[in-house]
Amino acid sequence: MRRRDVLKGVALGAASLALPKVVIARPASVLRYMPGADLAVLDPLASSAFVTCYHANLAFDTLFGQDTKFNPHPQMVDGYVVENDGKLWRLVLRDGLKFHDGEPVLARDCVASIKRWGQADAFGQALMAVTNELTAASDKEIVFRLSRPFPLLPAALGKSSTYVPVIMPERQALQSRSQLISDPVGSGPYRYIHSERVPGQLTVYEKFADYQPRADGVSDFTSGPKIAHIDRLEWRWIPDQSTAASALQANEIDWWEAPLVDLLPLLEADPNIVIDTIGELGDMGIVRFNHLQPPFDRPEMRRAFAKMVSQTEMMQAMAGRTWDDNVGFFTPESPMASMEGLPIAQSEPNFAEIKASLAAVGYKGEKITVLDPPSSYRIHTLTSMLVDQMKRAGLNVDVVALDYANWAQRRTNRDTPENGGWNLVATLLPGQELWDPAGHIALRGNGGDAWPGWPTSPGLESLRDEWLQSPDEAARADICRRMQLQAIQDLPYVPAGRWTTPTAYRKGLTGVSRHIPIFYNLKIER
Amino acid sequence: MLHYILRRVLSTVPVMGIVAFLVFSLLYLAPGDPASVIAGEQASAADIERIREQLGLDRPYLIRFGEWLWHIMRGDLGVSVFSSIPVTQLIVQRLEPTVSLMVYTLILSVLIAVPMGVLAAWKAGTSIDRAVMTFAVLGFSIPVFVIGYLLAYVMALKLGWFPVQGYAPLSSGIGPWLRSLTLPALALSCVYVALIARTTRATMLEVLNQDYIKTARAKGLNQFPILFHHALKNAAVPVVTVIGIGVALLIGGAVVTESVFVLPGLGRLTVDAILQRDYPVIQGVILLFSFLYIIINLIVDIVYTIVDPRIRY
Amino acid sequence: MAAHMSGAGHEGEFAAAPELPAILPPVNRRRGLAGLIARSPGSSIGVAILLAIVFMAVMADYLSAIDPARLSPIARNRDPSLQYWFGTDMLGRDLYSRVVYGARVSLIVGFLVALLSTVLGLIVGMFSGFVRWTDSILMRVMDGIMSIPPILLAIALMALAGSSMTNVIAAITFAEVPRVARLVRGVVLSLREQAFVEGAITAGTTTPMIIWRHILPNTLAPLSVQTTYICASAMIIEAVLSFIGAGTPPSVPSWGNIMADGRALWQVKPHIVFFPAVFLSLTVLAINLVGDSLRDRLDPRMGGKG
Predict the structure, then answer these.
(1) C152, B270: Cβ pair inside 8 Å?
(2) For residue A502, how far is the Cα from the chain centroid?
(3) Residues A31-77 pLDDT 10s
(4) Is B53 helix (H, G, I), strand (E, B) or coil?
(5) What is the arithmetic mean of pLDDT over B99-119?
(6) Are C222 and C182 in contact (CB under 8 A)?
(7) Would residue A154 count as lying in a domain?
(8) Minimal Cα–Cα distance from B260 to chain A, Å?
(9) C274: number of CA atoms within 13 Å, CB side?
(10) Is the CB of residue A28 less than 8 Å from the CB of residue A181?
(11) Do A374 and C250 touch (CB under 8 A)?
């Protein structure tokens, strides 16, 4: 680094320290929000962390939006036509779209953005697999030429869960995907302020004056007019739960996304705090096998094991605001969910019987390596309960405690446990992503390309293809019933229950969205 | 003397080299790299490998070490893997809270501890002495995060005297700045008060036992001038030494305190970076801390030689 | 916590500072603990607490009826009661059993770190003090290790090695050795200047003999004090490491882990942090009390006072 750069760094640092004061014209309204995790990565396609997904929905805009029931509606798109038996899609952008750097949003920006997203996202990959050609016919018109119909195209381009199909300027979208975008430029109602970013501490967004909300439709979740009522959003990361609770009580933050359930009595006692379960779909527990290593490379071993995973116990330990046991492979509220083949395990399993059936399928006391990240409270709780159950079933458990970084890395190691691999992990995915097979990464059976665990299940894969091409919901629901039965046979993972985590904010905040925190259409009064 | 000082200064160079080598190797050997943290929960192995390549994490050890060393010599600590912000800038961003906390803690500690130590020595063997020493031992024995939570619970949450967490920069005014730092400084100072009070007491006792002071006391000369002019002056060197060493080691204690009170300081930066495996940041900050420590150590060593020529190296 | 170590380190600086009287009085090694207790109430209290904790650690199997690792999800976060003396934690584990078993972890970590770092530090320090050409190399390496804040060094080492009790002990020992080494070297250097050692050297006494007769006995005083402080400090560092999430594996019921588990609920269930904190503080306090009275007795400069 040259000396000038150092000086520049100093000046920048000083400026950002001084800013809270300089901006004395404390804008009329500020929202201080504490996310459930630190926003470490700003590139919406580089991290599947939930907090990055919220950031993507906030700082960027998408071609389609979703209502609360996940139905797609045009957002940046003015309208679209489908021709040639569903194989030609023409999407026309609406007027007045602008990026935060002042440049207009053009069709070629969208094309580059979709292509970038299509590499990262499972739903996007499915779309790209049938896309022969994706081009900008003019500044306003995006054209998809498909090899076969893809009726879910608006749903894909309007998803609000990981990875969000955000629209970014072409120059950023064309960057190699491994080149992290650290100063993202979006076109949504809020603009990310790079100069005020303090990693691990503070991320700031300000109302984007040039944003033009849709003129038509109803504001609902990410669809309809997105109106920025609050001038400035400060995402403050507080690493300690107890401190965060104090901060909310002391009016030092306005909104705490994911308070620990056990702290709720404290917050409920405060008349100025509202407890609101916005994520009604909650999170779903997942006990994932490594399908490449014995003993769980054999389906009969997985089936014998699955009888042991009492969702009731798992959920009692997790102690969500509300919880459900006896859930299947899809989010219970989804039309795709069914009770087909359930329950997989009893709520009070007979461990003596399970011991016998494990022995019957050839378990001889081999060591089973379970990875545990104690710093990650929810995963650790699921893991601890699982290990307790395994011990009762007489399994030889080896718990490897790792920090989150190590856990995340070791989970991708396909080797034997002795060589740094693993046999079992417990984890969770949001109910929103297990809504249907499109985004359900844990239900893939594409072997080595699948989410760590690498299950191979031609049955699940062909059902998924069939689902993606089905024209109507009834047919799709039927396919999902068959998928569930197939999954109970192949067991890519064992469902471990579903629970919800409420959110807590100070009175005066209104218009809080369902599912995930959305910051437009939100109002604050003090 | 000059020759010694020069040699001593030069000798810090290999120490810095050893630290650089240690820090780099440690992280090189550590399992778990930033690629998997960046990629997140749903990433596939290919995603992670792609990021690894991009970050250059797949290149050989010596090349990476050499390159890294070459860059630091030119004052370039690299760029954070996560935020793509230069490490120097991150450090500058985080410097103010940490330095403020350390200076405040130190002043607070000295103001509380030195009178305590003097008093204890003067009243050696009495119940006052015992009370001071009991407090000192307690200060050593109670973990700083327990003290921190206790203080936050009582003085911030129940009494509302101080903010529960967060940092108000100096630019927002002396008042808010002091208010935001008082609780963390109090928590952190407990252990330093204990340390400095004990040192003060011990050295004071020693000085008070010397003949000229004994004589002065026997003659019934006014006690306070004796105490402050003669005794404290003589006891100053060890006390200053312990304060000097304390500065460097305050950094370690600051990590926990910054975590509890959510101060955006260097300690938090380091812990976050270690948990995220943000190599350039970890390396930069640890190197900076070590550099500080070495410089302070150097000064203390030189002061020793000047004060007491009996030490030969 | 580093502060605590700086306390320990600082003692080292002191011993190295040339404040030693011209002729050191012979140290009577036979005085021992028993003598101390009779004369010093502080150390009696310390020893009594310590013995109680050691008893608890040894008899843990008999003192608690509930498996400290057994989860009981329907009995989460119970307040202290007749069934659960200290209540339960977030996973419904019995806190009393965990605290009782936790004594083992703290004591093992404390004592082993103290022992290992003393032995290693003694070796390095002696080498440095006697084999002069190794001095600058050894001391630069020691300076290098010492110049990294011990907590950060330990966290980094833990990240490298993975969480296990052995690694915790190794990491803390690694951070503590330089302090002992510097202390020992300091004592050796000042003693070499003393007339009786110079006399012995002139008389042709072999180096091992000098070490055995003159150096070791005089090192013992500051060293035993230092060792107790290291023991206390190691216990606190273990707790801090666990508190940050880089300590003993969570399956091990160490006091640090129990506190880490309970820290999020500090405001609603303070007893989860309170019980292990009290036991940890008491144990550290006991060791510090013993260390202090050891120092008062053994350090000639402190003679008679306090």
Answers:
(1) yes
(2) 17
(3) 999 998 888 888 998 888 888 999 999 999 999 999 998 999 999 99
(4) helix
(5) 88
(6) no
(7) yes
(8) 7
(9) 13
(10) no
(11) yes
Size of interface A-B (CB pairs under 8 A): 181
State the chains in contact with A (3 or more Cβ–Cβ pairs under 8 Å): B, C
* Structure-token pair, residue A34: 């504490």
Q: Residue A336 — very low, low, confident or very high, per pLDDT cuts 50/70/90?
A: very high
Amino acid residing at A24: I
Closest CA to B254 of B192, B170, B164, B179: B192
Q: Is A269 on the interface with C (CB under 8 A)?
A: no
Q: Is A168 on the interface with C (CB under 8 A)?
A: no
| pLDDT 10s digits, C240-286 | 888 777 788 877 888 988 988 887 887 788 888 889 988 998 999 89
Percent of chain C with pLDDT over 90: 19
State the DSSP H helix or E strand holding residue C72, giving kind and residue range, or none if neither: none
Record the tokens describing residue A438, joined without a space. Answer: 């499109």
A242–B149 CB contact, under 8 Å: yes
Amino acid identity of residue A216, one-letter, is D
Tell me the three state secondary structure of residue C286. helix
The alpha-helical segments, DSSP class H, found in chain B are 2-29, 34-39, 45-55, 61-73, 87-122, 127-141, 144-151, 174-208, 211-218, 223-225, 232-261, 266-276, 279-307
Q: How many CB atoms lie within 10 A of CB A96?
A: 13
Q: Is the pTM of this model over 0.80?
A: no
Assess A15–B contact: CB distance below 8 Å, yes or no. no
User: DSSP secondary-structure letter at A370?
Assistant: E
Q: Which domain holds residue A105?
A: 48-184
Contact A266 C268 (CB under 8 A): yes
Do A438 and A292 share a domain, yes or no? yes
CA–CA distance, A282 with A430 (Å, rounded to integer): 6
Domain stop point among A165, A184, A203: A184
pLDDT of residue B235: 67
> Which residues 57-96 on chain A approach chain C with CB closer than 8 angstroms?
none
According to DSSP, residue A347 is labeled S
Helix ranges, chain C (H): 2-16, 32-39, 41-58, 60-63, 95-130, 132-146, 150-161, 165-193, 195-202, 207-210, 216-244, 255-262, 270-298
Containing A465, the helix (H) or strand (E) segment is helix A458-469
Q: Helices (H) and strands (E) in chain A — how many of each?
A: 15, 21
Which helix H or strand E contains A513, and what residues bound it? none
Question: How sure is the predictor about A429, in pLDDT bands with cuts at 50, 70 and 90?
Answer: very high
Per-residue confidence (pLDDT) for residue A11, from 0 to 100: 40
Q: Which CATH superfamily, name and number, covers B88-308? A: MetI-like (1.10.3720.10)
What whole-number distance in Å separates Cα of residue C160 and Cα of residue B180?
Answer: 35
B272/A38 touch (CB, cutoff 8 Å), yes or no: yes
- pLDDT at residue A292 greater than cutoff 90: yes
A30-34/A255-256 β-pairing? parallel
Q: Are B199 and B242 spatial neighbours (Cβ–Cβ below 8 Å)?
A: yes
Q: Is pLDDT of A439 > 80?
A: yes
Q: Residues 78..107 of C with a Cβ closer than 8 Å to A: which?
A: 90-92
The three-point CA angle C190-C195-C201 to 5° equals 90
Predicted ipTM of the assembly? 0.74
3-state DSSP percent of chain B in helix, strand and coil, to 5: 80, 0, 20
Q: Would A169 be classed as within a structural domain?
A: yes
Distance CA A343, CA A497 (A): 11
- pLDDT at position C113: 95
| Rounded CA separation C205/C190 (Å) | 18
User: Which CATH number applies to C54-302: 3.40.630.30, 1.10.3720.10, 3.40.50.300, 3.60.10.10?
Assistant: 1.10.3720.10
Q: What are phi and psi of A284, to 5 degrees?
A: -120, 130
Burial of C29 (0-12, 13-18, 19+ CB in 10 A): exposed
pLDDT digits (tens, 9 = 90+) for A374-409: 778 889 999 999 999 999 999 999 998 877 767 877
